[in-house]
Amino acid sequence: MRAVVLLSGGLDSYTAAAITKRDGFSLCALTIAYGQRHAREVEAARDVARALGVERHLELPLDLRPIGGSALTSDAPVPRGRDLDEPGIPSTYVPARNTVFLSLALGWAEVLDARDLVIGVNALDYSGYPDCRPAFIEAFERLASLATRAGVEGVRFRVHAPLIAMTKAEIITRGVELGLDYGLTHSCYDPKPDGSPCRRCDSCVLRARGFHEAGVTDPLVRGT
């Protein structure tokens, strides 16, 4: 079995990919360089892909900066120290990002004769993005059947989101059980010039909380 996995270089996509590999799939990893200010994650994705022993790793350039609408693809400030329970969608939301990314993964899956897509979205410990919810995943599966030649010919595509109902602590615990090296990953939305995490953006705060609740030391901050 072959699956196309969206691999960002963050701990969620790393864990989702590892779970999929454990389930017997051969992995073809797709990393999108979309003009994100935290492009360090693309380098992390290369390290993660090697660690996973993927069959293929495709890095696809797709500059979303001209579209704008997000602090991750513009010079707008990344929120720091935000209350994660604050209502509304933060400025780090990238318009339609997961829809675009899954569409690209779907196209590659058709070419590879793969029927399984993997995405590391999470609907519990996350920043409130609308494209991280179960309803979105279910809707995309329906779309895949309508929008592809394979789907019209009767093939059923599946979108695997193994982390969607897990807390960040549960994700980290599962990864540790699988022997993952989270020191390879990158999560920060706005890293310092040396690539180290800011520790105050939503992604850094969620990561720190997850490691704390899991009772595990984050290898990226060990000894600092």
The ordered string of helix (H) and strand (E) elements is EHEHEHEHHEHH
Distance between the terminal alpha carbons, to the nearest Å?
42 Å
In percent, how much strand structure appears in the residues? 5-15%
What is the 3D shape? globular
Structural class: alpha/beta
Q: Which homologous superfamily in CATH is the superfamily? A: HUPs
- Under the CATH scheme, which class? Alpha Beta
Q: What is the strand arrangement across the widest sheet? A: 3-2-1-4-5
How many helical elements? 7
- For this structure, the quaternary state is single chain
Query: How can the largest sheet be summarized?
Result: 5 strands, parallel
Rg is: 17 Å
Given as residue ranges, the uncertain stretches (5+ residues, pLDDT < 50) are none
Can you put this structure into words, describing what you see?
This protein is of the alpha/beta class and 224 residues long. It has a single domain (2-214), classed as HUPs (Rossmann fold, 3-Layer(aba) Sandwich), CATH 3.40.50.620. Helix content is 37%, strand content 11%. It has helices spanning 11-22, 40-52, 97-112, 134-147, 149-152, 168-177, 202-214, and strands at residues 2-6, 26-33, 56-61, 116-118, 158-160. Strands 3-2-1-4-5 form a five-stranded parallel beta sheet, with helices on both faces. Strand 1 (2-6), helix 1 and strand 2 form a beta-alpha-beta unit. The mean pLDDT is 94.
